[in-house]
């Protein structure tokens, strides 16, 4: 289902963007309306002292951005958009849902401990670039904030007896998250950074220590005109 939805987004937005590019002529006022695709290495930041770093984790997202030009040359703009994102974390925090409450413990005695999230993304950016209406290869620096609304989260691990334990949509998960974004590069090849500003769990603690886990992502983002 998720794969079909993402494929449909690709086809629709690609057709819109191709039509936009073909219509531009020299001297046109233009906007960099774009389809974006990103793939990132992900980590859980600000974990409690008794919890180690997460293992290899990754994130993928795709969506569409709408440009609003701020100057005649088109080098400065603001942009807003919408998209979908998926993340998979391999971590060392044991998460259980007991009688409608989320319980956190050290995950030293369990294995294959992962959780995944599927989010609606709403990025807002301030943009600088060296493009023109007919120059498609250019330098860019985009920075801003991205809001994430969780549509689904899933936690799974194998206990000491190798029995799978799984939970969906745990009660302590913070559905609305947000963070700072930065992307910079040339043409379609750009580095991308996301720094979560609020914890992914609400009113959570472990052994009396506040659980302030946040998301940190860095990788590549591709803007397709």
Walk me through this protein's architecture.
The chain is mainly β and 225 residues long. The chain has one domain (2-224): Beta Barrel (Lipocalin), CATH 2.40.128. 10% of the residues lie in helices and 57% in strands. The protein is built from one helix and 13 strands, in the order αβββββββββββββ. It has one helix at 2-23; strands at 34-45, 58-69, 76-90, 93-98, 101-106, 111-129, 139-158, 164-168, 176-186, 189-196, 205-206, 209-210, 214-224. The strands form three sheets. An eight-stranded antiparallel beta barrel has the order 1-2-3-6-7-9-10-13. Strand 7 (139-158) and strand 8 (164-168) form a beta hairpin. The protein starts with a helix and ends with a strand.
What structural keywords apply?
225 residues, mainly beta, eight-stranded antiparallel barrel, 13 strands, elongated, disordered N terminus
Largest sheet: 8 strands, antiparallel, barrel
- Give the class-level CATH name: Mainly Beta
Strand content: over 45%
Q: Based on the coordinates given, report the CATH architecture.
A: Beta Barrel
Rg computed from alpha carbons, rounded to a whole number of angstroms: 20 Å
Number of domains: 1
> Helical percent range?
under 10%
Query: If you average the pLDDT, what whole number results?
Result: 85
Low-confidence stretches: 1-27
CATH topology: Lipocalin
Shape: elongated
Order of helices and strands: HEEEEEEEEEEEEE
Concise account of the structure shown:
Residues 1-27 have low confidence and may be disordered. The chain has one domain: Lipocalin (Beta Barrel).
């Amino acid at each position: 289902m998720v794969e079909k939805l993402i494929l449909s987004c690709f086809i629709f937005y690609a057709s819109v963007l191709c039509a936009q590019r073909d219509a531009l002529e020299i001297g046109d006022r233009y906007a960099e309306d774009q389809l974006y695709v990103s793939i990132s290495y992900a980590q859980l930041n600000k974990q409690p002292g008794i919890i180690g770093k997460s293992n290899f984790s990754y994130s993928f997202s795709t969506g569409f951005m709408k440009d609003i030009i701020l100057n005649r040359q088109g080098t400065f703009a603001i942009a807003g958009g919408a998209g979908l994102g998926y993340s998979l974390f391999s971590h060392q925090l044991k998460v259980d849902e007991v009688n409608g409450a989320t319980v956190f413990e050290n995950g030293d005695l369990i294995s294959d401990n992962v959780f995944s999230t599927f989010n609606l993304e709403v990025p807002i950016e301030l943009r600088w670039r060296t493009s023109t209406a007919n120059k498609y290869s250019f330098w860019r620096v985009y920075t801003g904030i991205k809001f994430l609304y969780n549509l689904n989260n899933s936690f799974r691990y194998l206990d000491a007896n190798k029995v799978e334990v799984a939970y969906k949509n745990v009660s302590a998960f913070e559905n609305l998250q947000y963070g700072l974004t930065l992307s910079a590069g040339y043409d379609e090849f750009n580095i991308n950074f996301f720094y979560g500003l609020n914890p992914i769990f609400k009113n959570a603690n472990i052994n009396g220590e506040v659980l302030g886990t946040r998301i940190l992502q860095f990788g590549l983002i591709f803007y397709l005109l």
